[in-house]
Design a protein that fits this description.
The protein is an alpha/beta fold. The chain has 23 helices and 18 strands. An eight-stranded mixed beta sheet has the order 11-12-13-14-15-16-17-18, with no helix packed on it. It comes from Lentisphaera profundi.
């Protein structure tokens, strides 16, 4: 290239550099102009309710991860989402995912957090298992990850927070070895342990948020503790997270989940009974020390587990540093062997050290006077620390006692909304903070009755000092079943339910019915229970007005068709909530509302010839076919947001076509002669098939 061309090229480069420099806008001018702060969204992952996207923050210039809720969520789920964000933001630790910002966009909540360039521990272990990754191929490297997770959980526990969903999928490892514990959506705050700033996050998660089985299971099967399953009613605590950490350690050692089964129910049964293969059965090369740690952490009885995460972590560190773990109860020979391995160079020097120790023993006698002085000084120091601790305890007792009424109020609200897990935990916290709160003891006792825990119910009701019939019920059934971990037989339960009706303890009766309706049980047992409870609930009406009538109850397992038609004496059937029916026929019955169909995934429903007068409690959005003929229903507003295809309103009180015009999915409509004028019918969708009945 000639010098002239080279000079021209250099001048041209300088010109473009100057143009680029003039394009730069000062940050003082740029930042105030930014309206849409986040852009360049890319889908990363999604779960049952949340969607995770990567995005760019125009104010800071960095790339973040943004969590949002799906469009189908309700207000309770939005509230739980925001509480998760506030709780995560309050936990600032190097091994807990940091949260940067949160807010609402068109009433849709979101929050941003650190974008992790890496993989979950679950994915990493799967890659190591098939030889596709060397990042965590070495056991010591995986134990380093586990130790960091323990650091995060121990810190959360020190702040009074339980994670309750610890699993490899929620542990993220970056490409540079950073370990982060994520997804605090099921976390709970321990009222007596947390800082005051975390009290606003104190919640026991509504039943319709993050549920995995019949509205009851909160957590991940194979990693949840026995007390998290609906098969065992025990208070959750630090021991619950320790069990899950034991399951994660099991996965790190064996590359397999500890608890398996043909379905979720079988997995839960194995979890509660502690049935899992020992780690050495899967891989004989696994160190016995670590296998013993797994077994202790995963004990079915919380009392047999480690008392704290730090104790569990210390066991792993002992193994890493060449010490015996407490869980294995190592014999003296092994302890000596480990010592020799750790101190090869010192073994030879042991004799010399022993000789020196004899000399130092002689010197120690000359220092007795100095030690006495030190002992006096230490005693004074201990007294000062004891006085300080006493003042701190008195302050905490006063603070906790003042907070007790708020937890009792929350317990009442949860009980009235049939959120029994919340109610028993709130009431337990209330009496723990203020044992003199008799109303909280009474509510706690009633909750234990609903869970068939008569021993605990009797203890709570005695402390409430009330003379309610509940105390006598608890005494009588404690004689029948003293073990709170066992359940009543069907025959015993029906006597218990009948007793609640005879004593006019309607809140107990309603609680028992609701609890069983949402419990996990096989279909044969559920059908037998429903038949018996429906007869008990309607016993007076049956004996008074329809004596001799037999019950019509048919359920087809294959089609999931439920038929209770022609039972005119049946006015209430609350026990049928959450029944696995796809279609139901309740025609010619005495039901007065739709509450018994709550949580049923119905596609077809027939309530013709019933005394129902309104649709207010119809909450089955998946309905395709609805028959309300021969009822007093007049207002169809409730159907506006449904996708009905078939509707029968013949001989009902419906006299307006206003709502019918809005039902765009409707294909077939049944009415009676003269129900609407010809002019009104012509305003309906011309594709709609109208059937006129005599």
């Amino acid at each position: 290239m000639s010098k002239r061309k080279e000079l021209f090229s250099r001048k041209l480069d300088d010109f473009f550099d100057e143009v680029e420099a003039t394009d730069e806008v000062p940050l003082l001018e740029l930042i105030p102009k930014i309206k849409d702060r986040y852009c360049e969204f890319k889908h990363l992952d999604e779960g049952g309710l949340k969607v995770i996207q990567s995005c760019r923050d125009l104010r800071t210039g960095r790339f973040l991860a943004m969590a949002t809720l799906k469009n189908s969520v309700n207000d309770k789920q939005k509230e739980a989402f925001l509480k998760e964000a506030r709780l995560t933001a309050a936990l600032q630790h190097p091994n807990i995912i940091p949260l940067y910002d949160l807010g609402l966009h068109d009433q849709k909540p979101w929050f941003t957090m650190k974008l992790i360039s890496g993989a979950s521990l679950e994915k990493l272990i799967a890659q190591v298992k098939v030889g596709a990754s060397q990042q965590a191929h070495d056991l010591n490297t995986r134990l380093d990850i586990f130790i960091k997770v323990c650091d995060a959980v121990a810190y959360a526990h020190s702040r009074g927070v339980l994670h309750l969903d610890i699993k490899p999928d929620n542990i993220q490892i970056s490409e540079y070895g950073d370990v982060l514990l994520c997804d605090w959506g099921l976390a709970k705050v321990m009222a007596t342990e947390c800082d005051e700033e975390l009290l606003e996050c104190y919640s026991f998660n509504p039943k319709d948020v993050d549920l995995t089985l019949d509205g009851l299971v909160k957590g991940t099967p194979s990693y949840m503790a026995p007390e998290q399953t609906p098969l065992l009613k025990t208070k959750k605590g630090i021991h619950t997270d320790i069990f899950s950490l034991g399951c994660v350690l099991y996965k790190i050692l064996t590359f397999e989940k500890p608890f398996t089964g043909k379905d979720v129910y079988a997995i839960m049964q194995n979890t509660v009974s502690g049935h899992f293969h020992r780690a050495s059965e899967i891989n004989p090369s696994i160190p016995p020390s670590l296998e013993a740690v797994c077994i202790k952490a995963m004990a079915t009885d919380p009392e047999d587990r480690y008392k704290s995460v730090l104790n569990l972590q210390k066991e792993i560190l002992n193994y890493r540093n060449g010490f015996a773990t407490k869980a294995e109860n190592a014999p003296l020979i092994k302890i000596i062997k480990l010592w020799l391995i750790r101190h090869k160079t010192l073994s030879f020097a042991a004799i010399i050290i022993f000789c020196i120790s004899l000399f130092t023993t002689w010197l120690s006698f000359n220092n007795l006077n100095l030690e006495k002085v030190n002992a006096v000084q230490n005693a004074q120091k201990l007294r000062l620390e004891a006085d300080k601790l006493k003042l701190e305890n008195e302050f905490h007792k006063k603070f906790n006692k003042d907070a007790a009424p708020r937890f009792f109020k929350s317990a009442q609200i949860a009980f009235n909304a049939f959120n029994f897990d919340d109610a028993i935990n709130f009431s337990s916290s209330a009496v723990e903070l203020d044992p003199s709160l008799k109303q909280a003891w009474a509510l706690k006792g009633q909750m234990h009755l609903i869970y068939e825990q008569f021993g605990q119910a009797l203890d709570s009701l005695e402390k409430s000092q009330s003379n309610s019939p509940l105390h006598a019920i608890a005494q009588d059934f404690y004689r029948i079943k003293a073990n709170d971990k066992q359940a009543l037989s069907l025959e015993q339960y029906l006597k218990f339910y009948q007793r609640s009706l005879d004593e006019n303890t309607y809140k107990l009766s309603a609680g028992l019915s609701h609890q069983k309706a949402y419990a996990v049980m096989d279909i044969e047992k559920r059908i037998a229970l429903c038949k018996a409870i429906i007869i008990l609930q309607n016993k007076k009406n049956l004996e008074r007005n329809f004596k001799g009538n037999k019950m019509q109850f048919h359920y087809d397992l294959k089609s999931k068709y439920l038929d209770l038609s022609n039972n005119p004496w049946m006015e209430t059937a609350l026990i049928l909530q959450n029944f696995p029916a796809r279609s139901a026929d309740f025609s010619h019955t005495g039901i007065t509302n739709f509450i018994c169909f709550k949580k049923q995934e119905l596609h077809s429903l027939n309530v013709s010839h019933t005394p129902i007068i309104e649709l207010n409690r119809l909450d089955n959005p998946e309905l395709i076919s609805l028959n309300i003929s021969h009822t007093a229903i007049s207002n169809l507003h409730r159907l506006r947001n449904m996708s009905l295809r078939i509707l029968d309103i013949s001989h009902s009180a419906v006299r307006s076509t206003n709502i019918l015009k809005d039902l765009t999915t409707l294909e077939k409509l049944s009415i009676h002669q003269g129900q609407f004028s010809d002019a009104e019918l012509q305003k309906l969708n011309p594709k709609l098939e109208v059937i006129i009945k005599p």
